[in-house]
Specification:
- The chain is built from six helices and 21 strands.
- With about 350 residues, the chain is of the alpha+beta class.
- It has two domains: about 210 residues, Jelly Rolls (Sandwich), CATH 2.60.120.10; about 100 residues, Jelly Rolls, CATH 2.60.120.
- Strands 1, 13, 14, 15, 16, 17, 18, 19, 20 and 21 form a ten-stranded antiparallel beta sheet that branches. Strands 2, 3, 6, 8, 9, 10 and 11 form a seven-stranded antiparallel beta sheet that branches.
- The longest helix has 13 residues.
Amino acid sequence: MPPFPRAPLRFREILVEKPWGGRRLGALFGKKLPAKKPIGEAWEVSNRAGAVSVVADGPFKGKSLTALLEKNAVEILGRDIAGGWRGNFPLLVKFVEAATPLSIQVHPSDEFAAIADGEGTPGKIEAWVVMAAGPKARLYKGLIPGMTREKFQAALEKGEAGGCLNVFPLSDGDVILMPPGTVHSAEDVVFAEFQQNSDTTYRLWDWGRKRDVQLEKGLAAIDYHTTGLAKCKPAEVRENLRTFDKIKAKRGSGKLKREVLVWCQRFVLEALGLQGRCTFTGDPTRFYLVMAAEGQGEFRVDKKAYKWKKGQTFLMPAAMGEYEITSRSGRLFWCYVP
């Protein structure tokens, strides 16, 4: 067999219409949105039934992620991930716009989803990074102290669910971890979303919009005792942090700053600020998802350049080997399985 091509994989985004969506994914990231439709999500890397990413360019142009994993699971996922996931893709990455309030919802744990929706159905844990906060940007996260299932159900039936949640203002750059069991919503905001590969969501209330809800499952899935932190505080990566050796980077002629944004059971999310040129060495044990949050630049592999710009997402296969990243002033999110 010929050697696996060493190239970053960029996929065609999958645009999803939502009643709470808007048009800012086009204005901010250059997404080509269908006319006059409220687009709420752009799925950047996905391997779900009915929503499978297709490579946009390069040596695998036109190939689906599913097809690539069937033939090259180890080269793409890495030897540690491919064995544990049996060729399945463990992550899902999106851009989301909630122009009007996102439906009030909750995600179940893996254990709850397996019981409520059938064995093998995953729960969902996700993290958000705010890319653009409007003047009315708000985060609704967790039930207010003293809220019981009975009180919350009564509020839902009266259409007063919004008043039962903690409310926080949002600003550009905010990082939010959304554990399973956390009731949540948001409005007037665009964020990048990193999550385990799942679309299991129980809608509880939709701000008066006429859509189906999954009230019985949702009320049972809620963790009524804890909501966790409202926002996460980034930690700069130093040699004593567990993530230090995960991304093998040499500064080269550039400046590089690494921060851990989220570390949870299903994924780690880092931010890398880059000016100039840095050398990276691919990890044969795992893949990386790299999202351009700011700026533009190039990946250089064997003297071949692959351009990147804000709003694009790439899968860096485990078989990438050594490559360079250059940028005058860029910021990249790196998401990987711990």
